[in-house]
Amino acid sequence: xxNGIGMDAxxxxxxxxxxxxREEVIPYESDPRRDDHGAPxxxxxxxxxxxxxxxxxxxxxxxxxxxxxxQRETAVVLxxxxxxxxxxxxxxxxxxxxxNMYLLGKVGSPELKERFLKPLVSGEARSAFFMTEPAEDxxxxxxxxxxxxxxRRDGNHWxxxxxxxxxxxxxxxxxxxxxxxxxxxxxxxxxxxLPDPAIEIVRVPNTIDSxxxxxxxxxxxxxxxxxxxxxxxxxGEGFKYAQVRLSPARLSHCMRWLGGCxxxxxIATDYAxxxxxxxxxxxxxxxxxxxxxxxxxxxxxxxxMIDWCAGVLDTGSLGTVESSMAKVAVSEALMRVADxxxxxxxxxxVTTDTIVEQMFREVRAxxxxxxxxEVHKWSLAKKIRREWREATA
Length: 393
Description:
alpha+beta; Butyryl-CoA Dehydrogenase, subunit A, domain 2; Butyryl-CoA Dehydrogenase, subunit A, domain 3; 3 domains; 49% helix; 14% strand; AcylCoA_DH/oxidase_NM_dom_sf; flavin adenine dinucleotide binding; flavoprotein; FAD
């Protein structure tokens, strides 16, 4: 069971994070330093992180002695960091790094932590998690057992070959976690320094979201040689480690994007309370006021779902069922919130004058990554069937 530091202490950290995001980060939302896909350039990210470091809010979910906040405490901090799409980058709580730090903290040896985890925690490096593969190759997506990337032992090294897709942040990353199948059909994970000539970025497709530096790349891995001491954990245990990472990572996405949609609700509410139409403020028109009221309900329900799932994870459970339920409930609720915020603001809602249109795009993507809604529902339905069979046997 994760003890944490206590909710009062966690809330104090969260308050400092929120103050930093609102005062220092939000002004960067109009900064033009973006790549061709609209994502912030590393130059801007590192500039913001310098300010976060000075304010004492860099990687706030990991303490100076290496301890992590428990999941309920992490939630109150990550929600605040998500109040701006740039807040999570500035505070170093973003995907995939936050999930990769969690996995390395759980599974990595002291040597691997020193070499690969330390620069992530310090905010000096970004990372990428190489698991998903192209659909056209019949590779792993929501079903990791379909993995086509292979690894074979060669003396004191492993040789990896394969193709990966939608690898978030690969362009510009310095640390990679590569997942591949061994000859026995088990999965292995390897830590690698990036860039590496054996790992080629084929292309970075344009996607609907634009918050993550490096985009979501398609990757070719050709005869990548990795020393055996760079294997994360034990051979053949990669699928188990993936679950160690994915359950809390799904929940962290819920935390961050809840913060973003809370901010979108603030912006839409301000607009509705100031904008006049047909002789009264928009908020006083039932159709508009009810949308904001429904948003308030969805936001509170999402917050409660996150807190419930975090509590389960804090018992030491992998929480795969609970994180699936949270992923579905929160992502769908936030999609409704973001959509209504755009609708309340009308023409202004579809412009880049505020972050509302970006939140709509980001949350639409969130409904897919780390498992689409339908995959999680299917998994839950299978569990319901198993439980019924056991109960009626």
